[in-house]
Structure prediction request, 353 residues.
Amino acid sequence: MGGTVTHFMGKSYTGQGVKNFYKELIHEAKKVYFFKGPTSYRLTEVLKEIGYAAIRRGKDMEWFYDPLHEEVLEAVYIINSKTLYLHTDAVDPIYYGAGHIWLPYYETYDDRKLHDLAPLIRDKQIANEVWLTKGLQTLSRAKVIHDEWEQLIQPAIDWDGINALLETIKKKCIGNVQLQKKSDVTHRLMGSLTPTGAQDTLKSISKNLKSRLYIKGLPGSGKSSFMKKFGEAAKLQGLDIRFIWCGLDANSVDGVVVPELQLCMVDATSPHIYDPEREGDEIVDFLPHIKEELLDEKMIVEVRKRYAYEMELAQDYISTYASESKTIRMLYDSTIDEEKWTTFQNEMIATIE
Prediction:
């Protein structure tokens, strides 16, 4: 019987820069294979072959995608053996030895072809960094505007009502559960800004869960804090917790998963709008705890327009960066020695435990 696959974004582009949780994942893993070499589409083939081989052997997997390139993998993680395969474009090794293994693949390239294309690739990489910088600067401006938006909402929030709602949800979902063990707390990313807009992997993350709680509320109404507090309450009861972090704000939680309760709670408002679609789905509604008469709708509309403009501009910059990155990857891949690459791929599949 085959194993399962859960999909996550490997990194996200936020107002605070490029964010990932690979360092945390490296700490989770017992063994880490670090791929070292040029940025490549072909490395995804290797990672997928490792993944498929592990699944056929009944292993459960997590696959981590590059948000800028559809179907491109940055890493795969075999949960059963706690083995991580990771491209070092994403993060550098922390420890040498101690289960950290280098897998350089420079030797799979044709030196002559690589030498001939090197000046072109270098120039493209230098020019392309400008688009990434512009994109991140624009996201930073968008984050400041979003903070303004939140500040307009917060005076209208009935915080006592929100706290009472939290106590009700804790009692209903956690109840008197008490496990006699230390809680295992992990961190993942659900979404990111991509060339086609904000995207996430909630469907994959929640496919095997019985209960999904969708929080509906306005920016600044405490959704992230609510989920953090719920997760911390479950942690105190010995339940394992997985925090799912926002792909646009590096300090904000977009969801929390409690595997032992077969439950997740997620922010279900723009840009990731979700509504109940199956048994076990439920809305956690903050809107009754927002005093609409205290909202300055004219100011909110103005701020929302400015935020939308900056996010659209950021998407354009990120899209241009992704397009040029694609060209760079294809140039590198055109210099691969196919016979050497096949040998490398077979050697990597042989490492599966």
Remarks:
- The longest helix spans residues 111-153.
